[in-house]
Amino acid sequence: MGRVGILTEKPSAARNFAAALGGMTGTFDGTDYVIVNARGHLLGLKDPSAMVPAPLSERYKSWDLEHLPWNAADFRWEREVRRKVSGKKLVTDPDAKSLLDELESTLSTCETICNAADLDPTGEGSLLGWEIVEYLGLEGKKLERMEFLDETPASLRKAFSARRSVISIKDEGDYRKADFRDKWDMLSMQFTRLATKVSSSGTVLRNGRLKSAMVVIVGDGLDAHKSYVKKPFYENRFRDENGVTYTDPDIDRFVDKGDVPGGLESSPVVHDGTTRKKTAPPKLMDLAGLSSLLSKKSFAAKDVLATYQRMYEAQVVSYPRTEDKFISEEQFNELLPLVDTIAAVVGVDPGVLSHRTPRKSHIKSGGAHGANRPGPNVPQSLADVAEKFGELGKEIYELLARNYLTMLAPDYEYDQHRGHVEKYPSFVGSLNVPAVLGWKGVFVAEDDEDEQDETTSGATALGTIAKPFVHEGFPTRPPHPTMGWLMKQLEKRSVGTGATRTSTYAEVTNNATGKALMIEQRGKITLSAIGELNHRILPGTHIGDLTITEQVFEQMAQVEAGTSAAAEFLALVEDLVRHDLEKMKTNASRLPAELKERMAKAGVTRPPVENITLPPALHFTHGDAVVTTAKRVFCGYRFTDAEVAALLAGQIIEITAISPKSGKPFTCKGTLEAAVTEKGHPFVGFKPQFEERPPRTDLVSGVWKDKKVEFKGRGWGANAHWAGKDFTEQELAKLLAGETIEFEATSKDGKKYTAKGALAVSTHNGYKNFGFTLKFDDRAPGTKTRRRKATR
């Protein structure tokens, strides 16, 4: 049998395979192999306009509502090398391209290619591997799939020996499932275009299954919190001398305190019994839960993701983007010998960790990476973690380690004392008294605390006499949305995974460009002006319905099983878009005036783009595209009617516009001209014309510190307080040699002084300057100590 190429998902997986099989190349169980790795998705679907016939390309580039919805049957569904933003351009990721070349070079020499990417419920790993095989044109080789529950050596060796043959990539159900989801999510770009155009805000309103769900949940939660009206109610209750309250669950409540019936009297308390109760340790933490706790300490989700990734690469913590809520028995056994060391790092008494056998609630089979937990490389101390990964890294490790260690501690136990009021037996009360601290002595997350499990009075038993009183209560106010609250809402509705929720949350709260949908402050969330606008646009839409993800996942299951074709479900998106367009139009017509004012104050709203309609003679044809309009605004300047007429007549006009970079006005002349952008988009627009500056005669060149340089050597200082200085050939030679020179200069008040200086590089107002620089040890009389550079 020829060599098998094992394609793993990432470098860490390749290292784990190598450790299990005996090296990156070699022979295992009689099979020759070589291990290679991707780095996540190296490929992605092309831009919609690049996957349709050429005559339709402009339609699929356009954001105009008349070109929506799309017809899914128009797409060729092709993939390209992953792209990234460089400056303001979207370019092919050179690292991804280089890695694909390496993969092709190695895998093309193999007789068999085995997809050893991760297993996950969405089929993402299967897609990641097979799309590379297809893109490289290697699907004609013998194909295999390797399936493993975790990356322990035993599991990987077992998976290697149990590789299964793959007849056709298209026959792989998990590949079909993930491929369908990828295509559905690309079609969902239409909802962003709908909301953006309908809102007329001039800014992009990002929408998608998870983004929209977050906006809806937070927006509705804020509405409920803000609309809460604190209206009291009154009812009869009893309280004993130990502070225990006795209530009747069926008693009437009254709006006015005076309406509460009286006549109740004090009564003995009857003790109904005591029951010992237990609670098991909390479930293992995912990235969403971890990030939620850290948000209360003002750590941003994006920083949590970045720091956790660095810690994972050092194997201090486990794989970040796991979907598992439990670990396997192998993973449990792998960390068991390290438990005492981990406990010492985070200040937990190892003696408390007496439950060192697997708990069924935490240890299960069927996962892949296992829940988030400490890694095999245990740090020496929390100070060591802080030194290597910062204060955030220290917080991550302590939370993760303590959460993991709780399952090794005994159950929390408490005694529940129950009783009732003798004369009024419908009034009952209870008191919970801690008995065995158990796991609560290791770690209690704030969100996990249950006030009903604890007594707040310090009492250890029910009292003997209960006295009546009129209780004033209030309906519970809906909580202000927090990151933790949002993550729980999403989890209840099965929207996204812990890692996906965290990364999407990081995206929608990232306000680096002023386009965040949400604003977070110490864990509390509000909607930005853009987010609020989006929230008001979404009611009644499909993309804003929290069941849309459930529907998509049901469709994914049918595509995986082969009972339905992906094309059938992709075609349904067209009707969803058509429906949402009408709903968004209706919602947009009802936007409150105060929201529009808020948008304007936030600097979000921009005036709608005005176009000049071009006469047929000025239409610009480029390939299959025909440009029939030109923008009426150039760098903030709007052409007058007379100027529009002059431009259409081919005349040159002069305007004063504002530089988008410096914000300063500039004057230029120009005409209308047809051109094509760097991305290949044709357009007709105002083309400024600037007078050519005469060549400079004041510059000299030479070699300074082994580098070719150019600097002002004639008329130096002409713009300062002294006359221009022409350096002599001898002075230039000394300057280029790195020496300091002296010459006589005149100050602004006419006094003579000796100026000293040398060539130097410095920074001024963010710009690097090179040229002759004065040394102010012997500065001119009456001058201030400041530097003036010859050139910029």
From TrEMBL:
Q: What are this entry's molecular-function GO terms? A: DNA binding; DNA topoisomerase type I (single strand cut, ATP-independent) activity
Q: Where does the Topo IA-type catalytic domain start and stop, copy by copy?
A: 171-581
Q: Does the keyword Isomerase apply?
A: yes
Which of UniProt's keywords are assigned here? DNA-binding, Isomerase, Plasmid, Topoisomerase
Q: Name one GO biological process term.
A: DNA repair
**Residues annotated as region Disordered?**
356-379
What SUPFAM superfamilies does the record point to? Prokaryotic type I DNA topoisomerase (SSF56712)
What range(s) does the Toprim domain occupy?
3-153
Query: What GO cellular component is one of the record's annotations?
Result: cytoplasmic replication fork
EC number(s) stated in the UniProt entry for this protein: 5.6.2.-
The record, for InterPro entries, names:
Topo_IA (IPR000380), Topo_IA_cen (IPR013497), Topo_IA_cen_sub1 (IPR013824), Topo_IA_cen_sub2 (IPR013825), Topo_IA_cen_sub3 (IPR013826), Topo_IA_core_domain (IPR023405), Topo_IA_DNA-bd_dom (IPR003602), TOPRIM_dom (IPR006171)
UniProt protein name:
DNA topoisomerase
Task: Tell me which species this is from.
Answer: Rhodococcus erythropolis (Arthrobacter picolinophilus)
